Amino acid sequence: MYRDHNCGELNINNVGQKVTIAGWVQKIRNLGAMKFIDLRDEFGITQIIVSDKEEIKKQAESLVTECVISVTGTVLERSNKNAKIPTGEIEIDAEEIKVLGKCKSVLPFEVNSESVGDVREDLRLEYRFLDLRNDRIHKNILLRSKIMKTLRRKMDELGFTEIQTPILANSSPEGARDFLVPSRLHPGEFYALPQAPQQFKQLLMVSGFNKYYQIAPCFRDEDPRADRAPGEFYQLDFEMSFAEQEDVFKVLEDIFTTVFKEHTNWKVDEGPFVRIPYKEAMEKYGIDKPDLRNPLIIQDVSNLFTDSEFNAFKGKVVKAIVVPDGASQGRKFFDSMTDFAKEEAGADGLGWIKIDDQNQISGGIAKFITEEIAKELEEKYGATKNSAVFFVADEKLEKIQKIAGLIRIELGKRLDLIEKNVYKFCFIVDFPMYELSDEGTIDFNHNPFSMPQGGMEALQTMNPLDILAYQYDVVCNGYEMASGAVRNHDPELMVKAFEIAGYSEKEVETRFGALYNAFQYGTPPHAGAAPGLDRMVMLIADSDNIREVIAFPKNKKARDLLMRAPNTVTEKQLEDVHIKVDVKKED
Q1: Which residues form the domain of 356?
Q2: Which pLDDT tens digit goes with each residue over 47-95?
Q3: What is the dihedral of CA 310, 313, 316, 321, to 10 degrees?
């Protein structure tokens, strides 16, 4: 046995006992006649005394930080106690030290330094096994495990059955590129790694299972972002038979409030969560995942400038953001926000005014603010004394919504308006069923298997871009936390919905044959959602980088630097799966 206690459990009650502990050498302090070692494992740190006895000194001579040792000795009461750690009242007088795992004397970076975040991320990922020893990163992975246990317990309590679905699946238009897997047994044919278990979970409802869930791996060939893991991610996937939108909302509210309250001491919104239609979210926040901790809202003031002499606003869509007490900011602040609007948000410019405590208006576009406009800004839009107002304008509504949304977010950050230590949830509802693609064709906006509001009548009679779907997102603190929908379980509706998006019935039957065929044999109404596990852990860990809560993540270029993937394979391996590589070599 390498140890009989871990490094975090010994205390004053163990004084006088002979014990053996094992772990990693975190720090060595040489005081001449005596040496102190901080020994670390997953459970804590214990201080070791290496006395001036020749035998013990010799055993400790070769020790370097991050080597693995076991120590046998007697527990003593410390004279200089450390109240910051649970073992701070005791230390161990070493009688025997054994090296269990040697370590190179020069490390790529200091493992448990508070400045580990300053180390180049690619270097940390190349030596991820060392990076994971860092206390903060290590605790993130342990937190992830605890959250998964809570999720499983909650889903069991709610009567869901855990069922695994295939990893080798078929290609599906889920909104991102598939990862393809060539078949050795079937030349020229490919599996696809599932972007989500969407079709399988719907088939489980057809099969008579009442409530399904799994913590499912999903694979999408997307570009990396700080809040999105490249290539693969995990979600709590669930589906319910005989369920409507309200039934799913109750489950989602229960899941999020339970998990967040159990694993954080921040304030957590109680259900029912605020519900915001997609159109309203874009109007008020300029984004479909609004951070409700930010009190600022976007308002449409186009009507104020219909007859204005200010050509930059006249005849355009004009959005305004009123900042209470914003007039206290100096000219430098307004100039820097103008730079942000142009360089980061894509605006042509940023208009602004300040209203002082005498209701006098000054600032960049003050000369275009007539008495009538000023009165309406105060009475209708809340631009009262000591306020600042920021304006942006453009011919295109969607473009100016996005620009105003980015400016709102930046104002909230720079003015420190974001409410602290709180998780604010909302549902975004009533998403458009369809959108225009970059090529100008009709495409699905969200989930292609969703039920259109209004059913067949809406599909047959309405402009596709006006049709809403029973689709919904859960948003928390500016992050999309879950997506879901009431499913389209009617085969005729399914064919019509895909027809509008450019798919023939034959294509639907070919690409989604399992669902299309299954729906002919009695399908219950069903609905579900999929909270993202990685993002959930990221928020609870109070991190803004999703790679900090994944044990072995890819880097920003979707490379696994530790395992050196992706990589080339042998010609024989390619022959086995009937693949020829045609890659132009870079000059």
Answers
A1: 294-418
A2: 999 988 888 988 998 899 999 999 999 999 999 999 999 999 999 999 9
A3: -150
